[in-house]
Amino acid sequence: MRLDRPVLPLYYRVFKALEQRIESKQYKVGARLPSEDDLCREFRVSRITMRQALGRLVESGTVVRRRGSGSYVAASAASRTFRGITLTGALEDLFTQVERTQVRSVSVTERTPPHDVAETMALAPGEPVTVLRRVRAFDDEPFALTTNYMPLALGRRIRDVDLSGTPLLQILEKQLGLRFTHAEQTVEARLADDDVADALGGKFGDAVLYIERRMFVTRAEHPIEVVRSYYRADMYRYHIRLVRRRRERFAWGPDKP
Q1: Quick check: is 156 in a domain?
Q2: Cα–Cα distances in Å, from 13 out to 33, 53, 88?
Q3: Looking at the whole model, is its pTM more than 0.90?
């Protein structure tokens, strides 16, 4: 049985659902939340579970409790606007991201990559690669945990000292002469395990955005680099503009830069 995705406690799921309602202004600042009994009936949970969920909202400063009156949306909830990074579908966005963030920690090792990475990169069985692991910060807060897999011949040309002050993309293109032509990117929602939560300053089970990129150079059939990143969901969002591809049918696609 695979246990690669943690199961969220019931109270935490209720907490996140209520938090999203507040963020979307379904419950506005100063508004009284439904009673515990009403919420218990709606979410079909026990009073103990609901109190845990509401307690988490109080701890985060999103909700305040008034004895004998109930729970209310705190004034501080109104100031919680998005303050992270918004990216589109252009490859140049990768440069924008690294230019606006700072490297908090770096590690470089040589080891056998996960099986699916080795298969994607068309490596020989047991062939090791250079693995770069970095935690990046935005506004002095952990923002992303990124792991890069690349051939040893390429990774050994990168100096550890350069990784703290120079974006990896800049090192690969300007110093090592690579020219990335395109990237394939997959974005999905995941839950933080202990390793990811510790790196991003969060908690086990926190919602994160998982992004995998496969980086290609001219005429390459297989990616020369595989990048796997976990982003704090409250500090990263992805924006894309869709346009009609054909007028005669209802089909949408990303706008070309």
Answers
A1: yes
A2: 17, 8, 29
A3: no
Burial grade of 194 (CB within 10 A; 0-12, 13-18, 19 or more) = exposed
Residue 66 has what DSSP assignment? E
Residue 229 identity (one-letter amino acid): S
Q: Which domain holds residue 124?
A: 85-242
Q: Within 13 Å and on the Cβ side, how many CA atoms surround 34?
A: 12
Between residues 73 and 169, the one the model is more confident about: 73
Going from the C-alpha of 195 to that of each of 7, 30, 191, 192, 213, the distances in angstroms are: 15, 37, 11, 8, 20
CB atoms within 10 A of CB 184: 12
Q: What is the C-alpha separation between 144 and 139, in angstroms, rounded?
A: 12
Confidence of residue 253 (pLDDT cuts 50, 70, 90): low
Q: Is residue 169 part of a domain?
A: yes
126 and 150 inside one domain: yes
Region 92-106: what's the mean pLDDT?
62
